[in-house]
Amino acid sequence: MGNKVFKLAVLFITIIVIISCTQRIDADSELPKVFFTSDISPAGLVAVFEALGVTPTGSVAVKIHSGEPGNQNFLRPEFMADLVRKVNGTFVETNVAYPSRRRTTESHYIVAEEHGFTAVAPFVILDGEGEVSFPVEGGRHLTENLVGSRFGEFDFHLVLSHFKGHAMGGFGGALKNVAIGYASATGKALIHTHGRSRENIWGGNQIYFLEAMAEAAKSITDKTKGRIVYINVMNALSVDCDCYGGAAPPSMADIGILASLDPVALDQACVDLVYQAHDGHELIERIESRHGIRTIEYAEELGIGSRRYVLVNLDE
Question: For residue 28, what pLDDT is reported?
Answer without folding.
Answer: 67
